[in-house]
């Protein structure tokens, strides 16, 4: 059976640590294999992307393979061809499918009918490749990811949910500050609580208190553009600014998956300041996704 990567808990903690080791070797230029030689990755994008698209395409090429960019305007999926049929047909041509889409159910449907690995490039529910890149950044900057304390400030969105999934796998301490009505997914929170100390609070300062990693994301995610005005009101006190960063630990770093809105969820002097690691974080998308593809599509053992 082919393995998919739809959510962080699809990998065990040991497997993720092994992916980090491979990604570090790739980053250092020490990984010389070409596990995707002669292989193709179909990349379906139902939403926009800079980082995900470029890092997967370049990463596939660097591992010896070839990637196809498929937008709804290019493929029949955009004209209503069933996901199941698309999955079965693509599986006859390519060796892996990366998809960015809306409903998480759609990626589960794709994975069910595909006979090649399916990788989640973001759904409304989760963004697992991003949070693995974030954890890799934490490991490179601060050491053991399980030993750090994490703060999430803002929307209980796909990124927040992926952090909750990461807490579940690694058992770390995560505090999320979300306004009422913008909390993360209940079922993911309930599962994480069995293994980790995860709290949802209202006060951003409380979440930031003593945190080693402070994270945020846009107030309106892709597909929520029409809610922007209401959200600006709801998130008014949730900007990660210099004052909030003073509540974090001395060694604290700031992460943001990008794209960012300076002056909304993050102040310019934080994202462009000395604690920010957002460019390393963006670079790590390339390394971790290469490690994931090498494992799922290229036979690399993890
Ligand atoms: N962080 C992230 O996934 O960026 P893109 O939307 O540009 O792919
Ligand atoms: N939460 C954001 C992440 C973008 C990478 C979104 O879904 O639009």
Q: Could you name the CATH topology of the largest domain?
A: Rossmann fold
Q: Uncertain regions: pLDDT < 50 for 5+ in a row?
A: none
The number of helices is 12
Class from secondary-structure proportions:
alpha/beta
Strand portion: 5-15%
Bound molecules: phosphoric acid mono(formamide)ester, norvaline
Q: Helix fraction? A: 40-55%
Number of domains: 2
Rounded average pLDDT: 98
- Main β-sheet, spatial strand arrangement: 7-6-5-8-9
Distance between the termini: 16 Å
Regarding CATH, which class of the largest domain? Alpha Beta
Q: Outline the biggest β-sheet.
A: 5 strands, parallel
Number of strands: 9
CATH architecture of the largest domain: 3-Layer(aba) Sandwich
**Principal-axes shape call:** globular
Rg over C-alpha atoms, rounded to the nearest angstrom: 19 Å
CATH superfamily of the largest domain: Aspartate/ornithine carbamoyltransferase
SSE order: HEHEHEHEHEHEHEHEHHEHH
Model description:
By secondary structure, the protein is α/β, with parallel strands linked by helices. It has 2 domains: about 10-125 and about 285-295, Aspartate/ornithine carbamoyltransferase (Rossmann fold); about 130-280, Rossmann fold. Helix 6 (about 160-170) links the parallel strand 5 and strand 6. The model has no long low-confidence stretch (mean pLDDT about 100). The protein has a 5-stranded parallel β-sheet. A 4-stranded parallel β-sheet has the order 2-1-3-4, with helices on both faces. It is globular, with a radius of gyration of 19 Å. The two termini are about 15 Å apart. The chain is built from 12 helices and 9 strands. The structure holds phosphoric acid mono(formamide)ester (CP) and norvaline (NVA). Phosphoric acid mono(formamide)ester binds near residues 49, 52 and 122.
């Amino acid at each position: 059976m082919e393995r998919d990567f739809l959510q962080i808990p699809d990998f065990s903690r040991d497997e993720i640590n092994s992916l980090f080791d491979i990604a570090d070797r790739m980053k250092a230029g020490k990984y010389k294999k070409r596990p995707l030689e002669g292989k193709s990755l179909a990349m379906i994008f139902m939403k926009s992307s800079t980082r995900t698209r470029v890092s997967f395409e370049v990463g596939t090429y660097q591992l010896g393979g070839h990637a196809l960019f498929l937008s709804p305007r290019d493929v029949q999926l955009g004209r209503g061809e069933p996901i199941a049929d698309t999955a079965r047909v693509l599986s006859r041509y390519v060796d892996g499918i990366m998809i960015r889409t809306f409903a998480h159910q759609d990626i589960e449907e794709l994975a069910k009918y595909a006979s090649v690995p399916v990788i989640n490039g973001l759904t409304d529910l989760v963004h697992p490749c991003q949070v693995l890149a974030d954890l890799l950044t934490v490991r490179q900057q601060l050491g053991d990811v399980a030993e750090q304390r994490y703060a999430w400030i803002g929307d209980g969105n796909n990124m927040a949910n992926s952090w909750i999934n990461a807490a579940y796998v690694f058992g770390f301490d995560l505090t999320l500050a979300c306004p009422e009505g913008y909390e993360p997914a209940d079922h993911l929170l309930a599962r994480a609580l069995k293994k980790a100390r995860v709290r949802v609070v209202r006060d951003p300062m409380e979440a930031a208190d003593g945190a080693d990693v402070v994270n945020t994301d846009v107030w309106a995610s892709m597909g929520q553009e029409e809610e922007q005005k209401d959200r600006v009101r709801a998130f008014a006190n949730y900007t990660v600014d210099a004052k909030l960063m003073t509540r974090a630990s001395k060694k604290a770093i700031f992460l943001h998956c990008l794209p960012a809105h300076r002056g909304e969820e993050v102040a310019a002097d934080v994202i462009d300041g000395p604690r920010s690691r957002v460019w390393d974080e963006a670079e790590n998308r390339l390394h971790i996704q290469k490690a994931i593809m090498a494992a799922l599509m290229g036979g690399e053992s993890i």
